[in-house]
Amino acid sequence: MRIEYFQLIDRIIDLNLNDLTIRVEANVPTQSTIFEGHFPGRPLMPGVLLIESMAQASGWLIIARTKFTKMPFLAALKEVKLRTFVTPGQQLMVAAKIVHEGSGFARTEATIEIDGKAICDTSITFRVVDFPQGEFRANMDEVARRIGLPLESVAHG
Amino acid sequence: MPSTFETVANIIAETCDIPRDTITPDSHAIDDLGIDSLDFLDIAFAIDKAFGIKLPLEQWTQEVNDGKASTEQYFVLKNLCARIDDLVAAKGK
């Protein structure tokens, strides 16, 4: 995880396009400039970034589902629960499931666990638009490779 | 069984916290009820679930943007309900 670059997902562990689910691993770094301010002497992973990690896991699931033809953008959150503190060095298991595919939007339910214990959960709505091309697409392809998105099973659209 | 309009009006009232008695078949979701596009995603989600359909929001938006349709055709509630009924009927074929 490189928090400063919003690279919150380290590795896709499981992607199931039949069940519309994804599980990813995200390792909170032991050091980051973010922890210098959040908070001095008591470093905590910011809750908004835990939400972002659930959004990113959901987002990759939607991208895989639509075979890189659609790009999801975070639009709304419901019932966000941040159940406990997350500290540097902890390993997050982020999971998401698509619960609805609408016209121009999608909704997922996402969770984070640490060692099997529920840490966060929420329902996320995304606006889903045509996948941007050019540099954006090239960067996303690179990230997809880095996090181990099984491109062969998601054959690009 | 509630009518399509009753179901849609209840969804709008609950989703957007709009008094149910202010919602009529002639209400324009955007102009009269002040529903914005983000709130409409919630409404579309609930309508999709309630009726087992997929409102073609992208197509409608495109048609309005291209000047091929007016917002009244899709967002005045009696017209929206007629579209929903058409989609439900098409699903059953």
Descriptive account of the structure:
The complex is a heterodimer of chains A (157) and B (93). Chain A is built from 3 helices and 6 strands; from the N terminus they run E-E-H-H-E-E-E-E-H. Chain A is an alpha+beta fold and 157 residues long. A 6-stranded antiparallel β-sheet of chain A has the order 1-2-4-5-6-3, covered by helices on one side. In chain A, a hairpin with a 3-residue loop joins strand 4 and strand 5. The model of chain A has no long low-confidence stretch (mean pLDDT 95). With 93 residues, chain B is mostly helical. In chain B, 24% of the residues are buried. The chains are: A alpha+beta (157), B mainly alpha (93). Chains A and B meet through loops of A and helix 2 and helix 3 of B.
Topology readout:
The complex is a heterodimer of chains A (157) and B (93).
Chain A: E1 11-16, E2 21-27, H1 33-37, H2 47-65, E3 70-82, E4 91-101, E5 105-114, E6 117-130, H3 135-147
Antiparallel strand pairs in A: 1-2, 2-4, 3-6, 4-5, 5-6
Chain B: H1 4-16, H2 37-51, H3 57-65, H4 71-75, H5 77-91
Helix pairs in contact in B: 1-2, 1-5
How would you describe this structure in keywords?
heterodimer; A: 157 residues; alpha+beta; Thiol Ester Dehydrase, Chain A; six-stranded antiparallel β-sheet; globular; B: 93 residues; mainly alpha; Non-ribosomal Peptide Synthetase Peptidyl Carrier Protein, Chain A; 5 helices
Rg over C-alpha atoms of chain B, rounded to the nearest angstrom: 12 Å
How much of the sequence lies in strands of chain B comes to under 5%
Biggest chain-to-chain interface with counts: A-B, 11 and 14 residues
CATH domain topology of chain B? Non-ribosomal Peptide Synthetase Peptidyl Carrier Protein, Chain A
Order of helices and strands of chain A: EEHHEEEEH
Short description:
The complex is a heterodimer of chains A (157) and B (93). With 157 residues, chain A is an alpha+beta fold.
